[in-house]
Design a protein that fits this description.
Helix 1 crosses helix 2 and helix 2 crosses helix 4. A hairpin with a 2-residue loop joins strand 1 (84-86) and strand 2 (89-91). The chain has helices spanning 5-18, 22-42, 45-48, 51-70, 104-108; strands spanning 84-86, 89-91. Strands 1-2 form a two-stranded antiparallel ribbon. With 111 residues, it is mainly alpha-helical. The chain is flat, with a radius of gyration of 19 Å.
């Protein structure tokens, strides 16, 4: 089976999830975000009565709880200046030290 299409696809998936750099990190963060989102949607009253949804919620709840504990929050950042307030909260510019590397952290400033 060495070099078979199945092995090549599995190796590609492993490289996608376990690789190095921004692409792998963004992939894992995206999957965690997706898991949290699906968990929230399945927790809605009409869906949670289904047996398969209940099984998923039992499996995913510990992972989602841990992901929420470890994820970045607004309190993790120093707010220098509020530049606006709206329905989604306050908006503030990122600190100067982050100007060169606007990535995932930038989103936290707009929460």
């Amino acid at each position: 089976l060495m070099g078979s299409p199945v092995e090549r696809r599995l190796a590609g998936l492993r490289a996608l999830l376990g690789g190095e750099g921004a692409a792998a990190a963004a992939g894992l963060e995206g999957l965690l975000d997706l898991l949290v989102c699906v968990h929230q949607e399945c927790s809605a009253a009409p869906l949670r009565r289904e047996r398969s949804v209940q099984q998923f919620l039992e499996w995913a709840s510990p992972l989602v709880s841990r992901a929420k504990q470890l994820s970045l929050r607004r309190d993790d950042f120093e707010i220098l200046k509020v530049i606006g307030r709206g329905a989604f909260g306050e908006h503030s510019p990122p600190p100067r030290s982050h100007d060169q590397n606007l990535g995932t952290g930038q989103l936290a400033y707009y929460l």
